[in-house]
Design a protein that fits this description.
Layout lengths: L1 E12 L17 E9 L2 E13 L3 H14 L4 E5 L4 H13 L4 E4 L6 H11 L7 E4 L2 E4 L1 H9 L3 H8 L5
Parallel strand pairs: 4-5
Antiparallel strand pairs: 1-3, 2-3, 4-6, 6-7
Helix pairs in contact: 1-3
């Protein structure tokens, strides 16, 4: 996303001072527009500077760092909501296998809404349940159930160190 940041610079100087240095652009893609008006003994120039920046809010980076840290804590991490029936099904499935997943209930932890949005940006749709095995996003309930039916979930859990059988 490209946003333009605008800043207004006011230069005030006497009409007698013609010794100004030529203007050097501050940024190669910057655009500027000048609006001027004259007051007694002063000449005012208002410059509207526009700088294009690729802008990603800092809190998105912080939330993604937090998600990465949470995911690396255990071999199996599940982000869920306490009221979600599919989340309950996935948690029960892993517990039946003998896996002890780290479960983060997004409706009970601080900044849970921001973490849920970050999971959506990672490609989890719907955002809960989001299952990470071995630090990698497996997906939601559909993906986990598909892996289970294909008999590839147990080898994945063994490879991540969540099962020793």
């Amino acid at each position: 996303m490209i946003l333009h940041f605008f800043s207004i610079v006011t230069l005030s100087f006497s009409l007698l001072s013609d010794h100004l240095k030529p203007f050097k652009p501050l940024y190669k893609n910057a655009t500027f527009r000048s609006i001027s008006h004259q007051k007694p003994h002063q000449y005012h120039i208002y410059l509207l500077l526009s700088f294009p920046f690729r802008f990603q809010p800092i809190w998105h980076c912080l939330v993604m760092d937090r998600v990465n840290k949470m995911v690396s804590e255990r071999p199996v991490v599940i982000f869920s909501k306490s009221s979600c029936c599919m989340s309950h099904t996935i948690k029960t499935l892993f517990c039946d296998f003998g896996v002890n997943p780290l479960v983060h209930e997004l409706d009970e932890i601080p900044r849970g809404r921001e973490i849920e949005q970050a999971l959506s940006r990672l490609g989890c749709s719907p955002s809960v349940p989001a299952v990470f095995i071995g630090g990698e996003l497996v997906g939601g309930a559909n993906e986990v159930m598909s892996l289970h039916l294909d008999r590839s979930l147990i080898p994945m859990l063994k490879k991540a160190g969540a099962l020793w059988v």
